[in-house]
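testing teh design pipeline on a random one, pls ignore if ur not involved
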């Protein structure tokens, strides 16, 4: 049975899914109060020279320059850090969701969680700095979940994060094929006469 409780603002009883996480007001009242708060802040900006202490970093700063008008509690630096933390959290969720879909399509095991995904500062393959951008399009230095052994599934001992470019280059190629490409580019040895092509999914 779905639980319900009374909104502190409109005093109507609604199911729990009508409320934002950890909020006592229903979504409708909460959105309304947020809009009123933003409007009030915009109409009553801080005075130049006014000082205010950020509740997150506990640092006293210039209220006019170092705080956004719609948030009087957190400074701009802390707001930016929070946005980055939230984006990283959702980024990992997207990586996991995409990997799970691929695992279902390929019929391979999937037993990883966010605790198994560590995003290093640099790609362990190409050495380029990994960057988490704001868009959904992946670029060369975007973090990308890789399976060490393409014949195995998404398990804690078989995944790591490398750059999207490295993962794209690796794709479904075998070690033998990659070595042959390097040898061909460098001209160090003749290409092999025969390959066993990977089976189609």
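output:
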């Amino acid at each position: 049975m779905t639980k319900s409780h009374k909104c502190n603002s409109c005093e109507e009883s609604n199911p729990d899914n009508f409320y934002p996480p950890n909020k006592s007001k229903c979504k409708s009242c909460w959105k309304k109060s947020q809009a009123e708060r933003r409007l009030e802040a915009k109409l009553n900006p801080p005075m130049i020279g006014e000082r205010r202490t950020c509740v997150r970093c506990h640092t006293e700063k210039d209220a006019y320059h170092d705080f956004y008008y719609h948030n009087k509690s957190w400074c701009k630096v802390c707001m930016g850090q929070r946005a980055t933390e939230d984006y990283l959290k959702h980024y990992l969720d997207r990586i996991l969701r995409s990997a799970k879909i691929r695992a279902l399509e390929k019929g391979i095991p999937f037993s990883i969680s966010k605790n198994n995904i560590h995003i290093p500062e640099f790609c362990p393959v190409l050495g380029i700095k990994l960057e988490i951008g704001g868009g959904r399009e992946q670029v060369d230095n975007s973090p990308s979940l890789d399976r060490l052994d393409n014949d195995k599934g998404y398990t804690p001992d078989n995944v790591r994060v490398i750059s999207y470019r490295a993962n794209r280059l690796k794709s479904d190629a075998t070690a033998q094929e990659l070595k042959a490409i390097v040898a061909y580019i460098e001209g160090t040895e003749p290409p092999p006469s025969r390959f066993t092509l990977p089976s189609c999914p």
